[in-house]
Specification:
Largest sheet: 5 strands, parallel
Strand order of the largest sheet: 5-6-7-4-8
CATH class of the largest domain: Alpha Beta
Order of helices and strands: HHEEHHEHHEHEHHEHEHEHHHHHHHHHH
Radius of gyration: 26 Å
CATH superfamily of the largest domain: P-loop containing nucleotide triphosphate hydrolases
CATH architecture of the largest domain: 3-Layer(aba) Sandwich
Strand content: 5-15%
Number of domains: 4
CATH topology of the largest domain: Rossmann fold
Bound molecules: adenosine-5'-diphosphate, magnesium ion
Shape: globular
Number of strands: 8
Structural class: alpha/beta
Number of helices: 21
Helix content: 55-70%
Length: 467
């Protein structure tokens, strides 16, 4: 290997090390660099666990860095070959670092006798985390900037608020952010005890612990042995009173000990149904960050990022086409991209605009969410024979207020707009006003046939304007 390649390798290693020196030293003391030649990077890892960790946490950065430095390798073109061998003769690092670990008496690389246990806990966590759901792979835009910044500071330590409550619709990145927090903490503070759990799993584990008289173990896991608790999809606890009670005490124990808690939900705290007030008020007592439907530019950036991660070559124009067609859910956007790529590799046709248009017509026939807030406002106004200015005015007259509430409800239901966003679209109203409007119409619709008839008539009007 030439000295030039060696220099490039060393520079890329130095850059990657800077991101989290202590963690880098720890993991790369079990990695050996075997060479970098003709677009192939060869490494040896002490065992599979080390290999998988390094692949998930350091490699994307390191490889991108190397690709930028290697003129003859295209982005995404560097191949990595890993060998696993217990004999590491020339580790990349010594495992010693000038950065002070959090617990100075603890060795950075755990002693052999300590390793299996730590490895088990971390392996269990790593097994449930998606290695691609990192902060590096999360595209930040106005719709998610606050949630992203808050998640990042929770990962870095004491964020100054507790809990962090992340609210947002389906497929908008809540779970991605939770995994990103867990990855980052494990990377930067490998000794921290992070528990990531969905509310559903929490419930199941609780029931099992009750049945098998293992509550002490359960409580230790979620209280005394937990430095950071991440609970995904808390709305699942709705109506589950005994689990809510247990979670309430878990929450308090961690909160009193100043240990961060992050919770996600598809609803705002006040909107959670069949959830006791004391839990709702706990959820609202820290920072509430919402994730809204991303704007076009952010969606384009996300689809491009995803294509890069999946090794799919994507024209800018096709990225825009995809982002324009799939508007309200990133999971669906990714699904459309993967389907295009799969179809392209099966048929051998490149993913150009024409191909994407034909395919998108199949995956995304006229979608209900092609209507806009303005379309809904227009349909509501003509149904109730009001002018648009009425709808966004401060007029509290009963009939105007009702029409406004109906319009808010329809926007929320069909477009999945966030409450603050809707507040802005309806004359800069507060998001709590929108929330109670939506809830009111939802309730009325169930029990008042007249309200239901109004809604159906407006929906029909919208459907005919779409065609
Ligand atoms: P949620 O938990 O809110 O339902 P997920 O976190 O599962 O949604 O996200 C759905 C998919 O969309 C995931 O594959 C995730 O990586 C992707 N995604 C969502 N938001 C972003 C973003 N801002 N940047 C990159 N990927 C995103
Ligand atoms: Mg989720």
């Amino acid at each position: 290997m030439s000295t030039r390649t060696e220099r490039i390798w060393n520079e890329a290693v130095d850059d990657t090390r800077k991101r989290s020196p202590a963690s880098f030293e720890q993991w790369f003391s079990s990695i050996q660099f075997d060479g970098l030649d003709r677009g192939v990077l060869s490494l040896t890892a002490r065992d599979e666990w080390v290999r998988d960790w390094v692949v998930a946490h350091f490699l994307p950065d390191l490889v991108a860095n190397l690709e930028r430095r290697l003129p003859d390798v295209k982005p995404g073109g560097l191949e990595v070959r890993f060998r696993v061998s217990a004999e590491i003769e020339r580790p990349v690092c010594t495992g010693r670092t000038s950065v002070r670990p959090r617990a100075p008496e603890r060795e950075l690389t755990p002693r052999r006798s300590e390793r299996p246990q730590m490895t088990q806990a971390r392996a269990a966590l790593a097994a449930v985390l998606n290695p691609k759901h990192t902060f590096e792979n999360f595209v930040v835009g106005p719709s998610n900037a606050l949630a992203h910044a808050a998640a990042l500071s929770s990962a870095k330590g004491s964020p100054g608020y507790n809990p962090l409550f992340i609210a947002g619709g389906t497929g908008l990145g809540k779970t991605h952010l939770m995994h990103a927090i867990a990855h980052k903490v494990l990377e930067e503070r490998p000794d921290a005890r992070v528990v990531y759990v969905s509310a559903e799993r929490f419930t199941n584990e609780f029931i099992e612990a009750l049945q098998h008289h293992r509550m002490d173990e359960f409580r230790a896991r979620y209280r005394s042995e937990c430095d950071l608790l991440l609970v995904d999809d808390i709305q699942f606890l709705a109506g589950r009173e005994q689990t809510q009670e247990e979670f309430f005490h878990t929450f308090n124990a961690l909160h009193e000990a100043d240990r961060p808690i992050v919770v996600t939900s598809d609803k705002y705290p006040q909107q959670l149904q069949r959830m006791p007030e004391r839990l709702v008020s706990r959820f609202s007592s820290g920072l509430m960050a919402d994730i809204q439907v991303p704007q076009l530019e952010t969606r384009v950036a996300i689809v491009k990022k995803k294509a890069h991660l999946e090794g799919i070559e994507l024209l800018d124009s096709v990225a825009v086409l995809l982002a324009q067609n799939v508007q309200s859910n990133i999971r669906e956007l990714e699904g459309a991209l993967i389907r295009l790529a799969a179809k392209s590799s099966l048929t051998g046709r490149p993913i150009d605009e024409e191909f994407a248009r034909t395919e998108l017509a199949i995956v995304a026939p006229r979608r209900a969410n092609m209507v806009s807030v303005e379309d809904i406002q227009r349909a509501v106004c003509s149904h109730f024979q009001l002018s648009n200015s009425h709808l966004i005015s401060k007029d509290r007259h009963k009939s105007v207020a009702f029409a406004r509430q109906v319009a808010m409800y329809l926007c929320r239901q069909r477009l999945k707009c966030s409450f603050p966003e809707l507040g802005r679209a309806f004359g800069n109203r507060d998001h709590t006003t929108v929330m109670s409007a939506v809830r009111r119409v939802e309730e009325l619709r169930q029990r008042d046939p007249q309200v239901n008839a109004h809604l159906e008539a407006i929906e029909e009007r919208l459907a005919s304007s779409e065609n």
